[in-house]
Every structure is written in structure tokens, then in C-alpha cells.
Amino acid sequence: MISFEDLFGMDAEAEYFPEYDCTGEYDGIKCVTYKGAVYKGKPTRIFAHIGFPKAADKPVPAVILVHGGGGHPDDMWIKKWNERGYAAIAMSTDGFFPARPVNLYEGGGAEHMVHELVAPFDKEGYTAGPSTTHIADSDMPIKDQWMYHAVSSVILANNLLRSDQRVNSDRIGLCGISWGGIIASIVIGYDSRFAFAMPIYGSGYLGCGLSGLDKIFNVPGTQKWYAEKHFDRVKIPVMWLCWNDDCCFSVNSNSMSYQDTKTGNCDTCLSMIHNMGHSHSCAYTPEESYWFADQILAGNKIPEVTAEYSADKVIYSCSARIKSVRLFYITEKMTYTNREKYGLRNTFMEQEWQIVDLDPDKTEALLPQGAIGKYVEFTLENGVVLTTPYNEFKTVRN
Questions:
Q1: Which residues are CB-neighbours of 23 under 8 A, at least 6 positions away?
Q2: Cα angle vertex 94, ends 3, 228, to 5°?
Q3: Which of 61, 191, 236, 240 has the most CB within a 10 Å radius?
């Protein structure tokens, strides 16, 4: 097991750079750096943006936001959490710093980021962390690997928030998008201090995925970064939020991650969104992640959803009042290829989801002929979507 124990008591040594603070609609989001793990003999500095709710008169809950591959801290994402009463910090997980003051958001400002400790961030004796390798460096010494530093940057951001008197340290959550979701899935197996977590798109069981990431996660040496190896240690509630036709992650991985972590906390849930898309904005626009955090911190139980299948029938239930319920199914075993879909060329599921409306006032229905892969979607009265895990019959039924 990889050890991060030396990081938990480490002082984040935060430094603020007001001349680099955000402006305009992102006014109030501050620029900060904090001390990172040692890389090739030198401690690192980590760049981040941090924001707080306006006019907070007591310590507030907080969330750590982990960007996706090729991304950077996203100020719109921070702003959305601030507007809901949460402090939020988004750090660069790959050693990038702004070359000039810049607002960062999906598709904007990234051209001004550079992979070096440029002035005024160039503190003597420090270095930038490794840039993103997507675990292609897994044969290097552990503490020189990008994933080690990405995970460390989250643990140390947790230290930073917990030392801030404006933050309620018992109410800090974690959310990651895409590769940030992978990082979050790994972090929760090591850092037990979070109140909740929401990996979006990314998950565990990527070696079993179908969309191409399995090739990355089945290279010798990468197994040390299998998040599922430590899911038995995860006792916090987790929302696994994803797109049901993702070009980067297949829902079997999200579903297995949900099933593993559900055993550690009954408030863990799964939400596979139809027509979601894959991007930062597609990930943080839906209400599910904000709703989940609010419910957990309010002490409310997350509704339980179930589906059981026989050869010709599905029995389904939800412990809360629902607006609608639908069965999603495919009539072939799920497969992925590089193809045109949604006006894009990428690695997409070859099958098309078939959708059947079920009666929300009943608890069972006939399965369509030939249904192999399937799950049930429940839409709560407030519009939040919860789903049962993806399930495949082993053989085609006539």
C-alpha cells in the first residue's frame, strides 16, 4: 500500500497573491499557493483558486474540486459552490501556474498557464510538481509519479481548509471530474477525513472499463493506482455521478465502484445521467452533486433505490416519492469502438440505450424481449436522478 501518512500533519504554508485574484463575475475568488510533496528532492508549490460565500457569519462547509485531464482550476465551478454556501478550493494537480493574472474557467484562460514556478510564485528552494502523465510514469519511484503528487495535492488541500478558521473542518467534501474523478476515487481510500465525496465520470475498476482507459490501467505497474483496492476502507457517503454513454468511462466501472462503497455507507448512491455529455461544465451543471452534499450535511437519508431482475421481469422500488421511473436497456453486450456519435469522433458505446417508461405507482414490470444490459432510473420530485447499477444477463434470452 502506498503511504501518504507523512502528509496529514504537514503545514500547507499557504501564501496569497492578491494581485492575481479573480475579477469581474469571479470577484472574491482568491489566488493562493501551498506547499506540496517533495518531487525529485525539492518540495513543490501548488497553485490554487479559493473562494468563500459572501457575508458568512460562522464557519462554513467546504469542498475540494479536482479538475480533469488537461484542465485547470475552474472558477465557475468554485463560484457555483460559493453561491450554495460552501467554501471551495480548486488546485492545479499538474504543476501549472498562471503566467499573468487570469480568470480560469472551462475553455478560457488556460493558454496563460505554464508548467514552471514563474514570478511571483518562484519561491527559492521549491519546484513545480510533475505535469500530467495519466500514470504512464508508473514504473518510476512512487514519489516521482504524477498520480502520487495529484493525490498529495488533494490531501494537502484538505489540510489547508482544515486549518482555516472560516471552514467547518467536520464538513469538508471532495469532488473530482474525469481524471479528477479518478484522483478523488483514489484519495477516499487514503484520507478518511472527508464528510462526503462525489467522483464524476471517473471511478474505480478502470482496468475493467470498456472505453479505452482499460489499456492504460492494465499496463504492468499501474495496479498500485487501482482505487478499488481500498474501497473497503471507505466509510463516508459517496455519490458516483456519470454519463450513461460516456466517451471516456463505461458505466460498468461506476456501477462496481458504487456496489463496493455502498457496503461502507448506506447513503452512498449512483446517478447515471442520460444525455449528460463529458466536460467540466457538463459535470458541474446538473444539480445532483450539490443536492447530495446538502442532504449529507443536513443529516438526511439518501433515498434507497433497488431493482431485481428475473428472466422476464424487473421488480423496482424507491424509498422516496418519485416523479418518474424508467428502464434503460440494450439488447447486446456493451461494447465500445472509435466512431462518430453526437457529432464527434471518439470512443463511444456501440449500442443505443432503449428506454421504457415504468409506472411509478407500481413495483414491477415485464422486461422487454432480448434485454441484456439494463438499469432503472428514478427521478425524484425535485428532479434529482438516482439509478440502480448497470446489470448484464450472461446470455441472450428469447
A1: 101, 103
A2: 45
A3: 240
Residue that is last in its domain, among 256, 282, 302: 302
Q: Nearest to residue 242, comparing CAs of 387, 79, 36?
A: 387
Same domain, 61 and 91: yes
**Count of domains for the chain:** 2
- Average pLDDT in the chain: 96
SS3 at position 127: strand
pTM: 0.97
For 332-350, write each residue's pLDDT tens digit. 999 999 999 888 899 999 9
Same domain, 333 and 223: no
Domain range spanning residue 210? 5-302
User: 179-225: per-residue pLDDT in tens?
Assistant: 999 999 999 999 999 999 999 999 999 999 999 999 999 999 999 99
Angle at which helices 146-162 and 179-187 cross, to 10°: 70
The Cα 312–Cα 162 span in angstroms is 52
Task: Give me the pLDDT at residue 395, please.
Answer: 45
Q: Are residues 197 and 255 in the same domain?
A: yes
Residues 265 and 362 in one domain: no
Q: Measured between alpha carbons, how far is residue 145 from residues 119, 130, 137, 141, 158 in Å?
A: 25, 7, 6, 7, 21
- The CATH number covering residue 173 comes to 3.40.50.1820
Closest CA to 201 of 289, 115, 126: 289
Domain termination residue (choose one: 302, 333, 352): 302
Count of C-beta atoms within a 10 Å radius of residue 344: 11
The string of pLDDT tens digits covering residues 161-182 is 999 999 999 999 999 999 999 9
